[in-house]
């Protein structure tokens, strides 16, 4: 009777652990979502860059000034001016908080100018929007003329459907496989790899800041999520529920943190060093698989807890015990 009672208590304890794990996952997701919301979408992109409707470029500098170089970088998000003249160059006011500004001879400046940046503008595909930034080159009025060229927007609904189907397929598959823990470990690893490539590509698109600092800033909470997933996957391969928990927690954070980057589903020009379609696929995998692992993980962890309770009980419901040691002769 006592052993049966002990078995029931153990079973309840294992199931309760599954409930605790589920609540822990919810806490992690909520915390990650709070970080994203308070940080704002722009902060989640490398270098503060965002997806836009158009690419910007400098067309002409009138009159030409020997030694004055000005170019549009990061798809037109910023302007970079190098002053190789013998006098100061003044950027006239009207371009936002960065202007007016004075660049001494031999110096350079990279800034966001509201007159030229495509960020925050709606530019239809094929449309050309001209812009002008006025300068003063040691007393000579100079006009920097450029253009924004709109590009065709992607079919956003298709990418959202792809992300939803990816997550849903993973959840359904996890319910059918006998070793769903291994499935979650593999899916979580793919989500982490997708996130790493996504952050790396976004970092390489930034020309106005050091790569190392930009990568760390863009990675954000993924610096915690990636080790959780990869370390958890190794532990899960050894059949330990703690590994599955780590994978689920890391995958949930990865999915939450990539949410601001779903703007890539809606805008054609992306802050990513590589094909735009690759960036969208990476976001689909990080979001879809990350969310799918987090959702499926609660059920898989409960199943593992029940299995552990069943394995610890004997065929008659008693706790499995080691056979008594033989008496010494």
TrEMBL record:
Swiss-Prot/TrEMBL keywords: Membrane, Transmembrane, Transmembrane helix
Transmembrane annotation, as ranges: 157-175, 182-205, 211-229, 241-260, 280-301
Species the sequence originates in: Actinoplanes italicus
Entry protein name: Uncharacterized protein
């Amino acid at each position: 009777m006592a052993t049966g009672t002990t078995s029931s208590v153990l079973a309840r304890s294992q199931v309760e652990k599954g409930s605790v794990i589920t609540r822990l996952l919810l806490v992690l997701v909520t915390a990650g979502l709070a970080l994203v919301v308070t940080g704002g979408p722009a902060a989640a992109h490398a270098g503060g860059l965002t997806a836009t409707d158009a690419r910007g470029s400098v067309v002409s500098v009138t009159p030409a000034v020997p030694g004055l170089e000005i170019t549009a970088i990061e798809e037109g998000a910023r302007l970079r001016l190098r002053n190789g003249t013998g006098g100061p160059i003044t950027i006239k006011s009207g371009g936002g908080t960065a202007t007016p500004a004075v660049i001494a001879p031999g110096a350079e400046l990279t800034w966001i100018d509201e007159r030229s940046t495509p960020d925050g503008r709606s530019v239809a595909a094929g449309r050309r929007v001209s812009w002008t930034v006025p300068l003063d080159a040691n007393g000579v009025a100079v006009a920097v003329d450029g253009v924004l060229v709109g590009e065709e927007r992607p079919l956003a609904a298709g990418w959202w459907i792809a992300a939803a189907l990816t997550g849903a397929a993973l959840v359904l598959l996890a319910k059918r496989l006998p070793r769903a823990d291994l499935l979650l470990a593999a899916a979580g690893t793919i989500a982490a790899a997708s996130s790493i490539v996504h952050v790396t590509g976004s970092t390489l698109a930034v020309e106005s800041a050091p790569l190392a600092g930009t990568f760390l800033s863009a990675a954000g909470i993924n610096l915690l999520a990636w080790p959780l997933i990869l370390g958890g996957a190794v532990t899960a391969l050894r059949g330990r529920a703690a590994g599955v928990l780590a994978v689920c927690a890391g995958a949930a954070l990865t999915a939450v943190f990539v949410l601001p980057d779903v703007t890539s589903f809606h805008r054609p020009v992306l802050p990513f060093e590589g094909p735009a379609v690759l960036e969208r696929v990476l976001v689909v995998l990080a979001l879809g698989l990350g969310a799918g692992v987090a959702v499926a993980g609660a059920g898989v962890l409960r199943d593992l807890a029940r299995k552990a309770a069943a394995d610890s009980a004997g065929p008659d419901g008693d706790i499995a015990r080691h056979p008594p040691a033989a008496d010494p002769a």
